[in-house]
Every structure is written in C-alpha cells, then in structure tokens.
Design a protein that fits this description.
Structural class: alpha/beta
CATH superfamily of the largest domain: Aldolase class I
Number of domains: 2
Radius of gyration: 22 Å
Distance between the termini: 52 Å
CATH architecture of the largest domain: Alpha-Beta Barrel
Strand order of the largest sheet: 12-13-11-10-9-8-6-2-14
Largest sheet: 9 strands, mixed
Number of strands: 20
Bound molecules: S-adenosylmethionine, iron/sulfur cluster
Number of helices: 19
CATH topology of the largest domain: TIM Barrel
C-alpha cells in the first residue's frame, strides 16, 4: 500500500515539474477536452470517399512499388466489451466462422491476382480483430495454412496475433498456441485491460485476472517468444490507486512488454461503443483530465523505473526489437499494406482504401462474390498528403528520420516544416538534431495534439486546433 502511495506522490511531483501550463498557454490543446482527435493515420478516415477496387489496382505495375506488410482481420469475439468501437460479432457459431474463412481466402486470392503475384510478400504480419484466437483448433490450423499458401513469409521479421485470455486456456487453447507457433507466430498481443475482476465484469469481459495469469503460462509453455498485453486507463470507477496497483503488477509479469491505452469514449471509425451511454448517464464516474494525466504519467514512470521503455508511443518494451514490427513498418517504414477481412484497410502504391465494415458480413461476402476485394471507401494521396504523412506518422509513433524523408519525398524536412518545428521546439514539445526529429518527453504527453499541427488545415474536424499555429507562424 505504501508503495502505491509513494509512486503516486512521485508521479505528482514529476508532473508538477513539467511545463504543462506552457503547452496549454501555447494554444495547441483544444479548448474543450471532448475535442480530442486521435491521430491514427494520415490522411484521416474522415477524408475518404466512396471508392471500389478500380482505384487501387489500375495501372498497378506502373506505380512505384514499396515493401508490403499484411493485415488480416478476424471479427469474432467471446463478448462485446462496453468500451470497444471495433466492428465485431459475438458468440458466432463455428459454421459462421468457417464461411468467413472461405471468403477471407477468396479475398487473399483476389489481391494476389490483381497484383499479379504468386504470393503476397509480407515483411511483417498482424492478425487483428476482434479476437483471432476465437477460432477453434481446426480453424486455427486451416487459417495458418491459408496464410502460408498466399503470403511469402520468407521476408517476414515478425508474425503477430491479437488474443483474448480465455480463448488460450485449456487443452484447446494450448493446441491453438502450438499450431500458431509451429506456423511462425512469434508474438501475441493479448487484451487484458485490467487486473481488477470487478472492472473486468463492468467492461463486459469474460475473463478474470487468474485467466490472464494462466494464459501467460500457456503461451510460455507453447514457446511464444514475445508476449505483450493491452491495458486501459481512465476507465469509469478506476481510481489512481487501482491503476497504480495494475502498473506495479504489469511490470512483474513474465512478458516482453505492453500497450497502455487511454480509454477512448468516442468512436473514431464507423461504430460507436456502448461506453458513450454510460458517459452520458454518469459522466462523474469517469476520471477528469488532470487525473487522466496523472494516470498516464504513472504508466510511463513505473515502466521506465522497471526497465520498460516507450519505444513506440504507448508501447513499452524491455527490448526495442520486441515492439510491433507491423506498426513500425507502416508508420516509420511507410510501407504498403495489404489488408483483408471486414473493416480492414489497405495502402497500395499511393492509394488508401477501407473495406466494408458491416457486422452482418453480408456486404463483405456480396462484394467478394462479385470477384471484387471488399473496398467501399478510399483516398488517392496527393503530393501534399505524402509530404505530411511521411512526417506525421513517424513523429507520432517513433521519430522522423530526416534522410529517409528526403529519400521518399525528394525534399528536406526543413524545407517543408522548418518553421513549425522551430515554433514547437520553443514550446518544448519537439526536439531535433541533424538526423532526426522527435517528440520530447513533454511532447509525448500531447502526441496527438502536437502531430495535429502538421495536418492540412482542411483535414481537421476542429479547425480551431491550429489557430495558435497560424498566429505563431503569421
Ligand atoms: C482490437 S482489440 C484486440 C484484443 C482482443 N480482442 C481483446 O480485447 O482481448 C485491441 C485493443 O484495443 C484496446 N481498445 C479497444 N477499444 C478501446 C477504447 N475504446 N479505448 C482504449 N483502448 C481500446 C484494448 O486494449 C484492446 O485490447
Ligand atoms: S475489446 Fe477485443 S474482445 Fe472486446 S469486443 Fe473489442 S475486439 Fe472484441
């Protein structure tokens, strides 16, 4: 107990020493806390318009090629978590999952055919969800074999799968893990969210704290090398003490690292989770902005003190190579992405596309029956989009490599963003040397708000966010 109090006091003191007021006074934070705009990709999804597969595949051979990585989406889950905004289906029967796998394979084949490739080269792979480990033993084997049939994994540096604890338990759980490991899965990222059973129940999760511990043991037994967990802070009724205890438990686990997510109450994609109803009914049970800041800093401080470093924004690991290669490749390598499955997105040779996101799955199936990949929205990137994206994504997630930027765009970072960088450096949120530009320790606290400053103003849902920048830069 004393440890918890000591940690909180230390975090408060460290926070007080940071010039948060200076950042606030600079005007880069939106006046209203509700106007939080997470920077997930660039250009943002709000700029996508109707599109079908023609845009992504036309003149494919003549467009400049980049390295490709693979995303595969499995939409099934054991329960619907209150906070989740993803497109998911719960309690699906085994036959329904079989049908989805049939269509997933058809979509992989459609990509290969349209790209004129025998196999899709995958420099890293992420199987996300939903809950990919919802598949039963036979389906897991079939799915793994399918991936090896259609993707070239000889170039893959990391094969990562998202999981939920209960789906990894018992003999079946172990067998699924063994099959995945046997097919090259190195890394599992497991949704844990909290170590408090009452919060887990309130979140609508089916697993308990003990299930988490047992699932980690199972993964180790199955020789999964790289285990990550997801935790959420700023959850309703979660006190600072509870969060501190969670963090102190996390750093003692036999894992390589973890992702710390601040609860997002509002959707950023097509679906709004039920959490908004709780927020509208009882906003008082949600931690306020100052408490959220304290929780965030506790997460960073306890991690650093125990040898977990924030190598990617909100991703903490003991060793840098254990971080998500998929995220590193698309945000810093600025690679192309082949995404298959309902609600997945792709990025091929200058065109972004988003797949249909219907929970019934019928629109997804209908498009594939027409021999089309399941795209319904997208954006052909302009030169302005490229100049900004190649800076925004690495800045938000890791650091901008100036020579790589020049290689990709033919122009220097200073020529494009020199004035903005200088201004944000005076506020103390950005640092640079001859080789890199990165968010300072203070800047990482406001990663979304700082990176938003580099957006095209027409792409902002809250244009006043850049007013301060306009004034400062004249
Ligand atoms: C797509 S889920 C996959 C993990 C798996 N389905 C599970 O939940 O066990 C990836 C992670 O996103 C995070 N997440 C989902 N919704 C969130 C929200 N509204 N706010 C913050 N984090 C969220 C959770 O930590 C979750 O584990
Ligand atoms: S958090 Fe994970 S398990 Fe829960 S509904 Fe979302 S994707 Fe499914």
């Amino acid at each position: 107990m004393r440890t918890v109090e000591t940690q909180i006091a230390k975090a408060r003191a460290e926070l007080a020493a940071m010039d948060i007021e200076g950042v606030r006074a600079s005007g880069i934070l939106p006046a209203s806390g509700s106007k939080f705009f997470p920077v997930i990709g660039y250009p943002p999804l709000t700029m996508f318009s109707d599109m079908d597969q023609q845009a992504i595949f036309q003149n494919f051979d003549s467009r400049p090629a980049r390295k490709t990585i693979a995303y595969i989406h499995i939409p099934f889950c054991p329960s619907r978590c209150t906070f989740c905004h993803w497109i998911t289906k719960t309690k699906s029967k085994s036959e329904e999952v079989d049908v989805y796998l049939d269509y997933l394979e058809k979509e992989m084949i459609l990509y290969k055919t349209n790209m004129g490739m025998e196999k899709i080269p995958a420099h890293s792979v992420l199987i996300g969800g939903g809950t990919p480990t919802y598949l039963n033993v036979e389906q897991t084997l079939r799915f793994m074999q399918m991936i090896h049939r259609h993707y070239d994994l000889s170039v893959c540096t990391q094969f990562s799968v998202e999981a939920e604890p209960r789906t990894l338990l018992g003999d079946d759980g172990f067998e699924k893990l063994r099959i995945m490991q046997d097919h090259g899965v190195h890394r599992i990222s497991m949704g844990v969210q909290s170590f408090d059973d009452d919060i887990l129940a309130y979140m609508g999760r089916v697993h308990t704290h003990q299930d988490t511990l047992d699932a980690i043991t199972q993964m180790r037994r199955a020789k999964i090398e790289n285990i990550f967990i997801d935790l959420i802070y700023a959850y309703p009724n979660q006190s600072v003490e509870m969060w501190t205890r969670n963090m102190l438990q996390a750093v003692e686990l036999d894992i390589e690292g973890y992702q710390l997510y601040r609860l997002r109450v509002k959707q950023h994609g097509d679906r709004q989770g039920n959490i908004i109803t709780q927020f509208n009914k009882k906003p008082d049970v949600f931690p306020d902005a100052d408490t959220i800041q304290l929780m965030k800093h506790l997460g960073i401080m306890i991690s650093e003190d125990h040898g977990f470093h924030e190598y990617q924004t909100r991703i903490f690991a003991k060793k840098e190579n254990d971080i998500s290669h998929y995220l590193r490749d698309w945000c810093c390598g600025l690679t192309d992405v082949v995404g298959v499955g309902v609600s997945s997105w792709s990025n091929l040779r200058g065109v972004f596309t988003l797949n249909v996101g219907d929970t019934s799955l019928q629109t997804y199936y209908d498009l594939i029956d027409q021999r089309k990949v399941a795209i319904n929205r997208g954006k052909i990137r302009t030169n302005d989009d490229e100049l900004r994206r190649n800076f925004i994504l690495p800045l938000k997630n890791m650091k901008v490599d100036k020579s790589y930027y020049k290689l990709l765009t033919g122009i220097t970072v200073d020529e494009v963003f020199g004035a903005e960088i200088e201004w944000l450096a005076t506020i103390g949120v950005i640092e640079q040397n001859n080789d890199y530009v990165w968010l300072s320790k203070l800047g990482r606290f406001f990663a979304d708000e700082v990176t938003t400053q580099f957006f095209n103003h027409d792409y902002l849902p809250f244009p006043e966010v850049v007013d301060a920048q306009k004034q400062a830069l004249g």
